[in-house]
Amino acid sequence: SEHSASDAFAMADSGGVAEATHEASPPSPVSPKSASGFGGLAEEAQDGAEEADDIPQDAVQVEDSAARQMRPQVAKGLEEARKYAASYGSESCAGTMHDIINAVKGRFGHSETAPSVYFFEFLAESFEGDHLSVASNLLLREQLTSNLFQDVVQECKQRKIFKATPKEALKQQACSVLAFKHQCMVIKTMVANWTFMQKLTSQVVHHVDLDAKEETIAGMEEFWEHKMPARRDVPEVGTADSFEDSLALMTSRSIASSMDSALPASQTPLQAVKHRRGKLRARVLQDRHLALDPPDCIKEQLSGQKPSILQGQRTPSWRGTASASSLAMKTGSVRSQRSSRPQSGRPQIGSVPPRSTRYSRPDSALRNLSASLRMNTSSGHWMDWEGSELSFDEQLDLQSPMAGSISMPSLPGLQEEQELSEGMKTPSIHSVMPGLSNVKGKLPALLDRYVKTCRTNGSVPTPVSFLDGVSTSFDGRGLMDAELLSVTNVLENGPDLEDITLEDNQLVSDSSLTPFLRKLRDLPMHKTMKTLNLGNCRRAGQMSLSAALSLLQSSVKLKHFDISGMPVATRLQKTLCEAIGEHPTLEIVNLTKTGLGGSRHTADCTRKLMSSATVTSLDLSWNCFDAGEMKSIGQQVTDTNILQTLAMDNCSTTVKGTETSLSEFVEYLAYDASLRHLRLAANHIDFKSALVLEDALEAHPKIKTLSLSQNPLGSIGMRSLLRLMSRKTNQIKHFDSDGCFAGAPDNDEDLESKAASVKIFSFTNPGGHYVLDLSKAYHRTLLRMLYKTTERYKVPPDKAFVDLSFSLGSYSHAAKGPSGVLQVQTAGVLTFNFNVESQFEENMKGIQDSDFVGFLDRHFASVRFHADFSKIVPLFGKWVELQGRDADQAVFLDAMAKDFNLNVAYLDFMCQSNLGMLGGTMAALLPCISDDRRSRFLGMQLFPKLKDYCRTHAILAPLLNFNVQNPTGHYKLDLSRSPDFAVAQRLLLLDRWESMLNRRYNRLDVSSRGNRSHARNEVHGGQPLWMRAQSVAEWSLPEADEFELDYVSSARPPPDAKALTDKLWESIMVKLYESHCDPKDKLKVLRDISHFFWITSKHMRQMVGYFADPMDREEAFVMFYVRISDLQNIKLARVRFGKDEEVARLRERLGHALFFPFMQPENAKFELDLSLHDHRLCGNMIVGLALREKFSNIRDAIWIKDDGTVDEFAMGVPRSWETNIPTSGKLKARYVCSADDRQFSYRKQLAKSYAYMTKDIEERDIFWWTGLNEAPDDVIDLLEFFISRVSSMDEAFTIIDGGEPGTTSNNELTLKEFEQGLKSMGCQKFEGSDELARITAVFRYLDPGGEGSVSAKEWSVLEELFREFDLTIREFVQFLQFAFGELEDAWKVLDDDGSGELTEEEFFEAVQRIGYFGPARVVFALLDGSDDGNISWDEFEVLNSYKPAKQE
């Protein structure tokens, strides 16, 4: 209570919550998370209706799940959950689902039950069909993620890889949670107060007498239900207290009789009399005596008193049975009381009296006309205003309902009224008031002339306010031609009129209106006239308009002029505008729907119109102005700086492919300093015009209200308006946006270049390639917004605008004019690339190169739009205002999702203020909060129910599965969804960040197209992105269509990176195997934790063997490729991809330069598209290697040119291709190398340059390897033979080289020695007619250099094959051990038919069935020692020798 709301909010936001939160509720002993305010879980525990969605009704009563009948899927899940809990403990898991389940189960006393068990026991029954599968899979994923992460953290802490969390960090986390809770409370209170004040200020508030409230409501209900106890309220004549009472009673009854006789038989008075706005305006007939003043009023009192206007009032029927005289005596007090009482359900605005029509005239007119006649209390004679007596005949005429100006009933039409007026006979005054037989006198002059004129015209005298001789206002909204002519004849005898209103009069025409206006001009009263309102007099023609124009020119004191709805002829437009512009006192002008625009005089007309030095309110709505005319209006508005209110609804013109003409006008508002209210409804304002409006009004000092209803803003246009309203540099706190949810971006069709497609300004990521036609307002605005971006980033324009070209020659950067507005060119086409990357380094000081989360948080904090604190409450007030309008709210969310930076408290308010759209709100705005784990955790806790989380998870999946710290992978994103767009946006920002780092460290460009981009294979909307932009950095991310790409990070393990131990990795693999998660879910789990550790090439080899689908194996390989600490040994894992098409896909995803086999390129095959940058780099490296090792190492090279010709390189590949390779055609080649020719230093240099390898390695650090799929089948057969005869390949080499009598060892083998050695060892693998040819082919494989001899180093390729063979067998045995425990158990499962033997086909099927997807062919070849095509248990037992030794 000691702090204001803003101070408390600021204190909470800065972390100082110790004082502000001392009154917070203590944590609940059952649900400890309730104190954190996570989605109000504890607060909803009392609401049984909300619990019903997540908890079945019998969850509380039934403790034993076995007592219930479960669905098979639920029962199976429960069984697995219990096994899991028994193995890992009941509280071993964490995650969003587990948090929600823990909060739910804590309310019902099941705290000891494992979350997964509790879910299947009590919650799963409420899920139907696929929803249960989704929830179960999410639960299994969380379990697997939690267990793997715990193991990783435990080992990393033991090895001191992870630092212990300091106490200060824990304290900061606690403070952030408290601050979050406090902010939520403050925001909720402030927005509620704001909304309440908005409602108070948007409507008239009446103060009702509380004591009489019930009586008032009862009386109104009685009246509006046609239950009028009027007869009993008015005394009979015989019981009247005085003559005045009898007079009032008889007068009211005669009026009632006359009106009843005039109505059709089927129509009652109440049904006949209606208000022109559609509300019933009946008057209690018995209360007509109020038209007369009390009888004791004297002439002297009346002479200085203006009759009061009691329009639309009546004496309430619930006042009891007071006499007519007593009611009349209390007129003054009744008026004062009645004025403060609102009619139930009928709001009254005292300053604007209801309008009348011909058939429903204001009751005040009756009173004013009656009040002009006064009765002398002493003589009983009727007197005129001057005190003269009236004659008996004049009194008789006066009491006629025609002359008495009774409110006539609503008749079916004008013809019926004329028939009525002709057929009605004036009742005799003797029959009405027999006591007045001796009254004498004469009518007043003004009224006399009016009544006689009406008789002459055959019209009904209509009560007009100025006939009292005092009023200066004339309201002719219900008059007809004849009646207006009658009024015209008496104008010269009346008072000087100031306010003349015929608004919405659909009955008068030129025949009456023209003489009326001319008469006003001719009379002296035109000098005092202040208001002339002829709005919507649709029958008025050009004669009336000319007369009005003449009257305007002569009325020197006129302030309000309204001719809306009256088309102005082209010949009169210029005169009209000139008269308005030169008028000395005119302030309010309404020219709505007058036909302005579209003529050659329009520009001159608008210039004269806007030149007025007095007009402060102008309405030009529903006219039509083209771009030039709009520009002229904008110039005049800013030049005069007088207008305060301007309405231009539905005034713009638009043609397909062009901007709305209103943009030209809006652009000039940047120079205005006078406007306070602006109305631009229904003007085809799309996102382009909205950006122009944002730019123009960004710093406007006075505009407070903005109406943009019925414009196709869409989410992009709405984003501009939300940014505009949220800036502290203007006064806008609200804008009307009804019907603005439609709208989408389009393309400019007038420029031929595809690069000139419409550019959408991104506040967060404005960089890219721009082609701007500066003759367009939107393109000029884009340029100004970019200049403002350079100011925001503090980057000089020369550095931000690069590769700039201007169609009109030299270009000078924009500078601010005297008004502070940037002055840009208005013609020519400007082409440039815009980037502010130079500011990245300045803003990112202190951020580590590999801290991608820190980079994004710092970047979003500096570049995303932050709503000013003073505008936060109006912003959220706008959100609350849209409740119940789903389409508008969806646009609001989409608008905020792209550019706004929010904290968790803001997200919490928007979720809790509309729980019906919680899923959509979370899906749209979760990307707007920070990516750090604390904010993400708090944000995910905003889901109040388990079902809400499960339903929304599918939409949020791209964002939740995205690992910022390890973004390498394949992405397929729907940019129309906020989470997908957020991922794409982050990828583009990371691409720029890493590109900047590569330039900083002078790294070579290994991108696909030589643009330093880390994105590859980009496709948008089914079309390759390179057809639209040179790189994603020059591409403005759209908000529609599908975006597919591969991203490869340039982050590499540091030189001292420590990979996980083999023991831990094997444990991870076992848990992956035992988990019931889907393989793709396992990949998501691995991605989620991949950034916490490094792995080895051997780990990679083991992991890819656990996935059956080749695409899943490739995804796992790509995901961890840049996380390998010994990339020099990557061939251990690469050989697991035996098919050439699999290797080709990996090259396309990772890049030919990065995936190049730097250390072991032997036997590598290449197919290169020389039009791509990284393919050419690969060709450069192949030629460079050959030049340094042996040029003949390049084998089978051919070049297929674009024209189809083939070059087979008869003279070899040109040596110049090392640096100058062609940029077209396709190159195919194979590289081989002898171990004697390896140039390790050059290979290491290539790895450091192109793979960014940071670790300094030696040749001894490399595991020289050869895949079994690389060697010919005969080589593999020879290897199998040696394995069965010798313990190592070196032993076989020794036996062949000098092992025979008469030979000596020289560490080299000739073909003859090789052939004789195989025979001496008893090798029969090559028996047949082609035995010699086959042995020769094997020798040639072992002699890649072609010297005719095989050295010991060259022979080592068999040792490499042997190691691959041996490792494959050991991996298979290891798999069988952790899958089955013992080999005997594994054999029983493999030999499921119990035959005792397995054929090759049966073996392959069996191992795939148990989950082994490695090279089963090698295993079978080893086990089939008899070469009969079958393996038995005795042969299977050989695997016991490959078991790993037990560690003590």
Write the layout of secondary structure elements.
Blueprint: H1 5-13, H2 48-51, H3 72-88, H4 96-107, H5 115-123, H6 130-158, H7 167-201, H8 213-224, H9 230-233, H10 243-262, H11 269-272, H12 299-303, H13 324-329, H14 331-338, H15 363-371, E1 374-375, E2 382-383, H16 392-399, H17 414-423, H18 429-432, H19 445-457, E3 473-475, H20 481-490, E4 499-501, H21 510-522, E5 531-533, H22 542-554, E6 560-562, H23 570-582, E7 588-590, H24 602-610, E8 617-619, H25 627-640, E9 645-647, H26 662-667, E10 677-679, H27 687-697, E11 705-707, H28 714-725, E12 734-736, E13 768-773, H29 777-793, H30 797-800, E14 801-806, E15 815-816, E16 822-823, E17 829-834, H31 837-843, H32 852-863, H33 869-881, H34 886-899, H35 904-912, H36 918-925, H37 933-940, H38 946-960, E18 969-974, H39 978-1000, E19 1015-1020, E20 1023-1024, E21 1042-1047, H40 1062-1074, H41 1079-1089, H42 1097-1104, H43 1110-1121, H44 1131-1134, H45 1140-1150, E22 1164-1169, H46 1173-1188, E23 1194-1200, E24 1206-1207, E25 1226-1231, H47 1240-1250, H48 1273-1285, H49 1289-1296, E26 1308-1310, H50 1311-1320, H51 1331-1342, E27 1349-1351, H52 1352-1380, H53 1383-1390, ...
Parallel strand pairs: 3-4, 4-5, 5-6, 6-7, 7-8, 8-9, 9-10, 10-11, 11-12
Antiparallel strand pairs: 1-2, 13-17, 14-17, 15-16, 18-21, 19-20, 19-21, 22-25, 23-24, 23-25, 26-27, 28-29
Helix pairs in contact: 1-7, 3-5, 4-5, 6-40, 6-41, 7-33, 7-35, 19-20, 20-21, 21-22, 22-23, 23-24, 24-25, 27-28, 27-29, 28-34, 34-36, 35-36, 36-38, 38-39, 41-43, 52-55
